[in-house]
Structure formats: structure tokens, C-alpha cells
Amino acid sequence: MFNRDVYVNRRNTLKSSVKSGILLFLGNSEVGFNYPSNGYKFRQDSNFLYFFGLDEPDLAAAIDVESGEEIVFGNDVDIDDIIWMGPQPAMKDKAAKVGIEKVYQRDKLTEYIGKAVKGGRKIHYLPPYRDSNRIILNQMLGIPFDGLKSGASAEFIQGVVALREIKSREELAEMDDAANIGYAMHYTAMKMIRTGMVEQELVGVMEGIAQSQGHMSSFPIILSQNGETLHNHSHHQIITDGRLLVIDAGAENNAHYASDFKNSSMWRKIYNPSE
Asked: What percent of the chain has pLDDT over 90?
């Protein structure tokens, strides 16, 4: 998380780029990979992180462009959460760290947006990519699922892009950090590779570096002797002399800035080091 003023300045600049209405931000929720309580590693929505910096599930936020009001919608932990996670800071204290004074319960979001819609206010949202958030938008705004993408706010999108395409000094430092982790992943794999290894062994080491030095790999690692098949994620083959290996991978650091190394220098002939 950056300094409080970073988020305040970002939101203020964004507000000046949209003429009127409510800017709606939907954070991400947990996603189970074989049952609800056994979830994938949580990844917050990048735009939510950029403007609000709060890296936990089931949050939303709204900015009233005309009044300047900013609200975070999220719940404090209950006793069931505390049993698993231990005591946690109150949501109002977390929000204060990014310059937000007003916090509502998460279930107040529908009421807040509904009141704005009845008052003829324009609700700006960004194109949704998670099904859970598509469902929320459909229920709150009554927009058919096949119309959610086209219904996204061009003003909102342009305002976000104008801010995010220019990196601050703080962001450049995080990008350098992510690049250094990605470099370590690739360099270690190149040093380790031997004939007779399974591709999976190299992938496991690279993922271990990404998670030990950062948040996770930027995307599922591409490491394959079938480099002609783009985005091949099967890692079952044995490293064999005379074949070419492509590695396409990067790291996402703990601040959620990511690297991605994919170039021809990563193609190499597999050889027997003893020859």
C-alpha cells in the first residue's frame, strides 16, 4: 500500500475527468476451485487497488463526482472470521489509511445505488470480467448480461486509462522489483535445466521464486518444448537433447505490479553439459 496521499490524489484527478454521476468500483470476491471454502489465491481488482489500495475480498466503493463524497462498502469481521484469522482492524481504520472517512456495510451498496438510479443519477462502471460482479451489476442496474460490456462508461474508462498509463516514481520502483523477481525466475531455470528433467520441475522452481519473493507468478507459466503452440501450459514432457524450449513467465510482487519476460533469447537448444 502506498502513502495515503497517493490514493487521495488519484481519486481527485479521476473525479475531475468525469462530468457527473456516481463512479462505482466493485472489488473482487473469493473464488473456490473445488468447493467454496477451498479458494484460489485471492487477487483484488487492479482498478480497485489503484484508487483504494484495500487488498481484501468483498469490498466495493463509490465516488459521487458532484458532491465529492467517497464511500467504501465493506464488513468488519465477525466471530467466525476471528476464529480463523484472529482479530482484525475495523474497516473504518483500514479505509482511513487511504483517505476514506465514510464506510458502510457491504449490503448497503444496493440501497445506495438504487437511490441514485431513482434520482436519475448516472452510474458509471468499468467493464466487468468476473461473473460475480456481472451478476451484481445485472441485479443493481437491471442491465442484461449481454449488454454489460457495451454499457460500461466511456468517460470512466478514459479517466482511468489517462491516470494508469503514466507511472509515478513509486510505481516505477515496484515495477523494477517485479522485474528483478522475474529475472531471478528465468535465470534460475536456465542454470538448472538438464536433459532428463521433467518440464514441471523447472516450472515448480520458478513458481516457488515468484511466491517466496512476491505475491505469485504474473500468469500461469508457459514452459514448453512445443513453443510453436502459443500459451501451452502442459509441463509433462522430458527435457530432450536437440529440442528448443520456450519460457514465458513473470512475477507479480507484493504490491501487485507485474513483470513479463518473453523474447527470443529465452529459446535455447537443450544440450548435455558434459559434452
From this structure: 79
Distance CA 238, CA 83 (A): 45
Q: Which three cell numbers stand for residue 31?
A: 473464488
Buried b (16+ CB within 10 A) or exposed e, 212-229: ebbbbbbeebbbbbebee
pLDDT tens digits, residue range 226-240? 877 777 788 999 998
pLDDT of residue 81: 78
In angstroms, the CA 127 to CA 147 distance is 10
Q: What is the C-alpha separation between 134 and 128, in angstroms, rounded?
A: 6
- Cα angle, residue 235 at apex, residues 131 and 222 outer, rounded to 5°: 60
C-alpha cell at 247: 519460457
Residue 111 and residue 60: Cα distance in Å, rounded? 13
Residue found under cell 456481472:
134
| Cell numbers at 233, concatenated | 501450459
First to last CA, the chain: 50
pLDDT grade for 263, boundaries at 50, 70 and 90: very low
Buried b or exposed e, range 115-154, using 16+ CB within 10 angstroms: ebeeeebbbbbbebeeeebbebbeebbebeeeebeeebbe
User: Which domains are assigned to the chain?
Assistant: 4-164 (3.40.350.10), 169-269 (3.90.230.10)
* Whole-model pTM over 0.70: yes
Residue 180 near residue 172, CB atoms below 8 Å = no
pLDDT digits (tens, 9 = 90+) for 12-29: 999 999 999 999 999 999
Q: What is the mean pLDDT of residues 21-50?
A: 94
